[in-house]
Amino acid sequence: MHVTVIGGGGREHALAWRLERSPSVHRLSAWPGNPGIAALGACVPGRVDDQAGILDWCRREAVDLVVVGPEAPLVDGLADRLRDAGCAVFGPSAAAAQIEGSKVFCKELLRDAGIPTAAFEVFADPAAADAYLRQVGAPIVVKADGLCAGKGAILCATLDEAHAAVDQVMRQRVFGAAGERVVIEAMMSGPELSVMALVDGEQVVPLPVAQDHKRALDGDRGLNTGGMGAYSPVPQVDPSVIQQIVEEFLKPTARALVAAGCPYQGVLYGGYMLTPDGISTLEYNCRFGDPEAQVILPRVEGDFGEILLACATGRLAEVQLTCSDRAAVCVVLAAGGYPAEYATGFPIDGLSDAALLEDVMVFQAGTRREGAATVTAGGRVLGVTALGQDLPATIQRAYQAVARIAWPGVQFRRDIASQAVSS
Ligand code: GLY
């Protein structure tokens, strides 16, 4: 089949890489893709919000399956538009994608279904939000309702910070219309865990568990980022916890979405906190995590294209997902200064040298071609990923590959997955 991947980041490169290895996929393309994906299939220049252009491409090029990577086109209804035209799409409808696109929708769905999540209130009026804050005090979390590129949840240690968050989100509208409403919720504490699953209505098939590193600097210091690295499996989390999340959180969430009239089709990403009082839901995302996808997908065995097609066409129950016991580690190489200001346009040395190492994949995220050179074009530039027999050997292999790559100012964490081997 002909599969088109929508998006152009590291997650989409990992999706394209895995799909290209699937026996059922004879042609791969991406919209818009990136220079890494271009080595696997045709990349069509275009914007992910150009629904008419994508539909036209799918019809003209007889695309059998569209795999949507990022959340924004899903929340905007790309999957609905394509499905209405008869295309098979891996990715939820706009109604189901509200689980990420609207924090209010997500929290109310969880509360109504009795799925544990922090206590919360919803406000459309900043004065009412401020009055509530004075009543409950800090620490507290203020969340903009809509999509904010991962920046919409503001953790406030003091009441002043919480009022400032309401002011920025609701009055100054720093996130635009996403700040029309806010969720104000109790702050929780404990280790975080993300669990992703393929979901087709009430059918839930868990994927290997991965852990992300959100902070920019070693030892979980520095600013929050989109993710500086990931690893899988996560041996310090007891398998019974993961089982409990699947049975008591993911499956009831899928059922609640069906009951709400918006059955989910695609990958559902649950973020959980292991609090002293038990597991609680932090958030849901309507797509693969990035860089979690870069370590999960290399561990998935079998015909991944067929599995995604089955999920997209209501046949997930008919396929078997198997995963290898091998470990995967991804180290993100970022531009100097990221996630604050950074420069782009530096030629990247050693890309092909690093990829020569056995079981090493260099997934490109923020790159572009300039003549014969691949140059930096974003904050997170590469996801250097290794597979190996266990985490210690795989960490070593990933950093061996990282050592072969250079450009002025490159920054990366040196402690990816170290907590998994030291605990
Ligand atoms: N790595 C976190 C996310 O994709 O949202």
Write a brief caption for the model.
Helices cover 31% and strands 27% of the residues.
Structural description of this entry:
There is one protein chain. This protein is an alpha+beta fold and 423 residues long. Among the domains are: 92 residues, Rossmann fold (3-Layer(aba) Sandwich); 56 residues, ATP-grasp fold, A domain (Dna Ligase, domain 1). It is built from 14 helices and 22 strands. It has a 5-stranded parallel beta sheet. It has a 5-stranded antiparallel beta sheet with strand order 12-15-18-22-19. The protein has a 4-stranded antiparallel beta sheet with strand order 6-9-7-8, sandwiched between helices. A hairpin with a 3-residue loop joins β13 and β14. α5 crosses α6. The mean pLDDT is 97. The protein binds glycine. Glycine binds next to loops.
